[in-house]
Structure formats: structure tokens, C-alpha cells
Write a structure and sequence with these properties.
Strand content: 25-35%
CATH class of the largest domain: Alpha Beta
Structural class: alpha+beta
CATH architecture of the largest domain: 3-Layer(aba) Sandwich
Strand order of the largest sheet: 1-2-8-7-6-4
Order of helices and strands: HEHEEEHEEEEHHEEEEEEEE
Number of domains: 2
Largest sheet: 6 strands, mixed
Length: 267
């Protein structure tokens, strides 16, 4: 209850107005609107995301209720609005087709088997018109994990509050550390977790190319050698979302590699 909170005032203005731009990541874990955070401050958080900030939400039944944060100005930053439905049904969290390619969930420990080698969850929050990318699905194939871009920022939303079951080892647990670390790093724009990424590396007299993509086929890579000669290299699918290529080189110096709008350098 509000009247039992500490007598020391929570520094809401300092945190959500004066210093909000200094945050790397803001997390709402089963949070519902209370008088602790004035309504105006949700607008500041939405603006923080729009200008490049990172927001992660773990949604429980509160998200479907009358005190939902979806009923505040923060709604402009959210990837999905609640329907008010809370589905109490056992399910194995599974990767969607997009999730099998996305760097956040691709190759997640335990995902290669059917059912996945991790524990069940028992609650999914219903939403309508989900935006962004649904990389995991819950009961009845409902969206479970949404990753979205809002302006210059990013938002992640878990439509369940059952992740603690993995952390507690229920039915063997699950890869909670690996998954939450990847989500946080993607939200904070870690280059290795970008959906579209091109890297090139010179190893001895071999030039190795790696392309991360959400597309079915990125096409060949274009190479310009140190002497200015143009070449192409076919990129072969190594795993969902990853294509590799290599070519033997005879020149010493800087190689330019391109694929679509992406560029990389290697020597």
C-alpha cells in the first residue's frame, strides 16, 4: 500500500526527468500504474525511447487490467495493446520462424528439439495488432516475445510473467540468462545482435565473409581488392539467418566487401 512506503521520497523527478537520458535500459517488470509515478513521467519515458533509449517490459495480468501501463502516455512506445484476456494454459515457449533467424533467439539453448528442452510456462497475456517482430510464441501460437523499434529506440516485450520458472529450475529450467542477456544487448544496440550485419575477416590468404540477415537469400557479396579489381562471392546458408562465403586472396592490403546496403573492410 502507498501509505506503507518509505517516508523518504522516491526521486522520481531526478530519475525520470533530469537523468533519464543517462539510462542504458528501463525495465518494467509486472508494473501497473500507481500514484508513485505521475502520469506525465510516462510521456518522458516514451520520449526517451523515441530518442534512442531502450525499454523492456515483462507483462503479467496487470497489463490486461484497468491500471495497465497501456492506459498511460507510454502506450505510444508499446509494441502491442492488451485485449484484456489472460490465458491460463500450459505451453512450451517456442521460437517463431522469425525467431529462428533473429540473433536474439537463434540457436537458443534447448530450442533445437521438439518439444524444446526447457520447462513449460502457464500464462500468456492476450494482445491485438502486435507490432515489431514476434520471435517467440506462447499458448495457441500467441505472441510471447516482441522486439520492436520505436523512432531511434528499441522495445522488448514479454507477454508472460513466467520467466522466473526457468530461473528457478522448474522442470529443468531454461536458458533464462542467455535469453535475457541477448534481449538486453539487442535493446542497447550491440552490433553482434543486429538483424542485418556484414563482417569480413582476413585469415592468412583467405577472406572470410559472414552475413546476418532476416531474408531468405541476401545474394552474393561484392569485393574490391586492394588493386581495385571487382569480384563476387556466393554466400551459402550456414544456419537460419546466417550466410557465409570465402575466397582465396593473392593481394596484400585492404579489401572492401559489400552486400546490399552494407559495407565491411578487411585486410
Amino acid at each position: 500500500p502507498i501509505n506503507e512506503l518509505s517516508l523518504i521520497a522516491f526521486p522520481t523527478r531526478e530519475l525520470f526527468v533530469e537523468k533519464i537520458k543517462d539510462f542504458d535500459l528501463i525495465i518494467f517488470d509486472r508494473y501497473q500504474h500507481r500514484d508513485v509515478l505521475p502520469v506525465l513521467y510516462y510521456d518522458y519515458i516514451a520520449e526517451y525511447v523515441e530518442k534512442g533509449g531502450a525499454l523492456l517490459i515483462a507483462a503479467g495480468p496487470e497489463y490486461a487490467g484497468e491500471s495497465s501501463i497501456a492506459r498511460t502516455p507510454l502506450m505510444s512506445a508499446l509494441p502491442a495493446m492488451p485485449t484484456g484476456e489472460v490465458v491460463e494454459k500450459a505451453f512450451y515457449p517456442r521460437l517463431t520462424e522469425l525467431g529462428q533467424r533473429h540473433p536474439v533467439t537463434r540457436g537458443l539453448d534447448g530450442s533445437a528439439t521438439e518439444p524444446p528442452h526447457w520447462s513449460r510456462w502457464f500464462r500468456t497475456i492476450g494482445v491485438e495488432n502486435p507490432g515489431g517482430e514476434a520471435v517467440m510464441k506462447g499458448a495457441d501460437d500467441r505472441p510471447l516475445l516482441l522486439l520492436d523499434r520505436k523512432g531511434e529506440g528499441r522495445v522488448g516485450m514479454f507477454l508472460s510473467d513466467q520467466g522466473w520458472l526457468w530461473a528457478r529450475g522448474f522442470e529443468g529450467g531454461g536458458p533464462h540468462v542467455q535469453l535475457y542477456r541477448r534481449i538486453a544487448h539487442w535493446l542497447m544496440k550491440e552490433p553482434e545482435l543486429e538483424e542485418e550485419r556484414l563482417t569480413a575477416d582476413g585469415r592468412g590468404m583467405m577472406l572470410e565473409i559472414r552475413r546476418q540477415t532476416m531474408s531468405d537469400d541476401p545474394g552474393p557479396a561484392q569485393i574490391i581488392t586492394p588493386s581495385g579489381k571487382a569480384m563476387t562471392v556466393k554466400l551459402e546458408r550456414a544456419e537460419p539467418g546466417v550466410f557465409l562465403g570465402s575466397i582465396e586472396t593473392s593481394e596484400i592490403g585492404l579489401y572492401q566487401v559489400g552486400n546490399g546496403d552494407l559495407k565491411a573492410l578487411a585486410h
